[in-house]
Amino acid sequence: MMNPLILLHAITAEVGVIAFLWVLVELLNPTESRVARAQVAAVVGCAALLFAWLVGGFYYVEVYGLHVKPLIQASEAAWVHSIVMEVKEHVFLFLPILATLATAMLYRFESELIENRDARVSIVLLSGLIFLLGFSIAGMGALISSGYRFALLAGGV
Amino acid sequence: MNTKALIRAAALTIVLIAVATIGSELSASVKQLFSSIGGHHWIGKSVLSLVFFGVFYGLFAKLFDDTFSIKDTWLLIASVLVSGLAILIFYVQHA
Hints:
The complex is a heterodimer of chains A (157) and B (95).
Chain A: H1 4-28, H2 32-74, H3 79-91, H4 94-109, H5 117-154
Helix pairs in contact in A: 1-2, 1-5, 2-4, 2-5, 3-5, 4-5
Chain B: H1 3-26, H2 28-38, H3 41-63, H4 70-94
């Protein structure tokens, strides 16, 4: 059975990255109301990513390292831990920093974003980066789950 | 809020996460140092990334005026791509 913490981690992280896609869309052709909506989306996205960080971190340290990692490492899919999980757990650390920055910039510039093209493009680029990086990490998460299932089946569990 | 300082602090913190990640794999004592912060090396890196982000922002806010330039955003994006690739290539080579 899937650990509920994994489900919570995946859902909140995906809400977080989709919220930044929402920010990107709102800023393509900004008005005052679109900037206001983008601010709300960014706060939701930032909070969701920080929560996903806490939940995922707790699961990684308390469950994955003790029960999942040894099984994967003992299987033919050991690369799932030694490459995919290692990259995922470290690249994930970029996301809360980027999300905090994008949110802070939205509140710093506010309605100036309608006229200030460079600031607007910067937030659009950052939001796109958060979305792409976030979904790459989600794909890594799916690979790790598959690796765990493979290890369980290979071990006859 | 000083945007230039915030973007540069983010870029430097992300580069340092990559350096800490690779450094802790190459040196057991470095990994132990991170583990001593929160009981696990990943918690240590997580806590330090937040601390450094704050410290660098405070430092850069004193060093740079708040003149926003999109060049800083490109610098940050480059730091994300280079750091992410460095981590990926390191683990592929050492798997």
